[in-house]
Amino acid sequence: MCRGTGSAVSTIGRAPEELEMNDRSYVRIIALAFGGSFLVATILQVLVLENVLVQPPAIPSSASVVERVTALEGYRHDSWPLYFAANAVFGLGFFMLTALAIALFACVSAGDVRRLLLVSTLGTAGVVGLVEQAVLIGTVKVAIDIPSCDCALRTEEIVSRFWAEQAVRGAVRVLVEVAVLLGAAGLLISGRLFGGTVMPRAWAILSFGTAALLAISVGLEFLVLGGLAGTWLGALASGILIPIWALWIWRSFGISRAAAAAP
Prior knowledge:
This protein has 263 residues and is mainly alpha-helical.
């Protein structure tokens, strides 16, 4: 993809009309899959967060950890299919992000060091994101499937399992933030590389704006200043801006200016 016979050929600095159809198709198809995955995953995630399909039980604020965990067992079991679907599709989206990074990497000349920065940010973001989704799915599935023992140590077991799950979720949260920040850096680099050449300058502006929003969402989550503000800013980015960014690639990569240059 984006290569000539026997050696790498840069699309950067070339007129978009010089790109071969195959050069465009690889990047555009992967971008479509990436953007579509994030759009669908975010919609499913919002359904989970808002308890649209399954309502949690009413739990008094005075309930203990054991009482809370026990009361939520049925809810977690019933909401698992939707929860799994949301995180699995996000995992697919992160996988496609790595594939997109590799495809874009191949469209930059070997002498341009920025292509290494591109694949090391966007590509690594995809790998980290895929790993954290797999860990999260596995952790929650085990917590749902393995019942607590009906023995004298049941209370201790429930408390231990609860805090073990919280520890894993904390580690996953760190991986999410790393993936988001790497992705934000990759958006900045891609905007600089492709904006005004094989993509419109307006797309580069969208890249920069989305990167800033992602960084802000991580900052709010880290500083715990905005409560759910960071989560919803992240949803805005993953469900609207990133799909637009990716679908714009699908629609225009290497052809927007080529059409304008055609006689």
